[in-house]
Design brief:
Elements lengths: L1 E3 L7 E3 L9 H9 L3 H24 L3 H21 L5 H20 L6 H10 L5 H10 L2 H4 L2 H5 L4 H4 L16 H19 L5 H26 L5 H5 L4 H8 L7 E2 L9 H5 L24 H5 L5 E2 L1
Antiparallel strand pairs: 1-2, 3-4
């Protein structure tokens, strides 16, 4: 017994939901009828839902279905609110995703989601927890959404963005080398635990997550006030940027400038928390790999020359 919708060429399945066929041209046409401001939320939700289903079926753990469905839904709702010009849309996403990962995954579930947790699971040869998180959010996912993680999901940045120096008050410092030192220390720390066969590694990883976050918040807040820049920690200290910068160079989602509309007022550059030159469309633009897609520049542009 077939159940047909209005357009049989689009969808046809039997009572057991076993057969599914569709007309690609019809699907494409229907999607083109969706207002542009709603397309990105839909695409983002579908992307994360696909990840959720694939990991659930592959690893046979329903946690991944709930985990990535929740994150994808938060992102989709937040991006929808951004399209509606809701002032605190980005903060909503930051706390919905960031607090979930910090409190539920990190503290209650005792999963170390920091870089030390990534090294730990990687050395164990386990494809789960922090390894999956890093591969999706901080390595391969960057090829699509760039450093969106930094602007919309990082639990360190969600607090730092509440501080008073949303616009950098000083020129950028040449302190980027610190991030590579922290990156190396994290790798050496976890490597030494395995090398010297330190017992009770699970407990050590949990407390390294707690202590690591306390240090991140302490250093991040201190640097924000000393350098008068909320994102100073992200620019100079965060070790994750070692992964983020190379991949984000090739990101599909990036801010572009319509040269015909741009009047070179440079208002966009003044409000950028990461000191990115958005007027240059080249992938080699100044600090181009540090764009967090916060859209401050887009909202500031009076000529609507900037867009995703």
């Amino acid at each position: 017994m077939a159940i047909l919708v209005e357009n049989p060429a689009f969808l046809c399945y039997n009572i057991n939901y076993e057969v599914f066929t569709y007309d690609k041209k019809y699907v494409r046409g229907e999607f083109e009828n969706v207002p542009k401001q709603y397309r990105l939320p839909i695409i983002m939700w579908l992307l994360f839902e696909a990840i959720a289903i694939i990991l659930w079926l592959t690893l046979k753990d329903i946690f991944y279905l709930f985990n990535f469905t929740y994150i994808g839904t938060c992102l989709a709702v937040g991006i929808f609110l951004l399209a509606k010009k809701f002032k605190y849309a980005r903060h909503f996403i930051q706390f919905a995703v960031g607090a979930y990962m910090l409190v539920y995954l990190g503290i209650f579930s005792q999963e170390n989601m920091q870089i030390t947790g990534f090294w730990y699971y990687l050395f164990l040869g386990l494809f789960e927890a922090a390894v999956i998180h890093y591969l999706i959010a901080k390595i391969f996912g960057l090829l699509f959404f760039g450093r969106g993680w930094c602007g919309y999901a990082c639990w360190t940045a969600m607090i730092l963005d509440l501080l008073p120096y949303k616009i950098p008050q000083q020129p950028r410092k040449k302190l980027g080398f610190i991030r590579y030192m922290v990156f190396a220390v994290s790798l050496i720390f976890v490597g030494a635990l395995f090398l010297f066969h330190v017992p009770d590694l699970n407990n050590i990883m949990f407390w390294s997550f707690i202590i690591g976050n306390v240090l991140y918040y302490g250093v991040g807040i201190a640097l924000a006030f000393i350098l008068k820049d909320n994102r100073a920690f992200c620019k100079y200290v965060c070790p994750i940027t070692t992964f983020l910068k190379p991949a984000s160079y090739f990101a599909f989602l990036r801010i572009k400038n319509d040269k015909d509309k741009c009047i070179s007022c440079n208002r966009c550059k003044k409000v950028c928390p990461m000191n990115v030159d958005m007027t240059d469309n080249s992938r080699k633009r100044i600090n181009g790999t540090e764009c967090i897609l916060c859209l401050n520049c887009v909202n500031e542009c009076q000529k609507n020359s900037l867009h995703l």
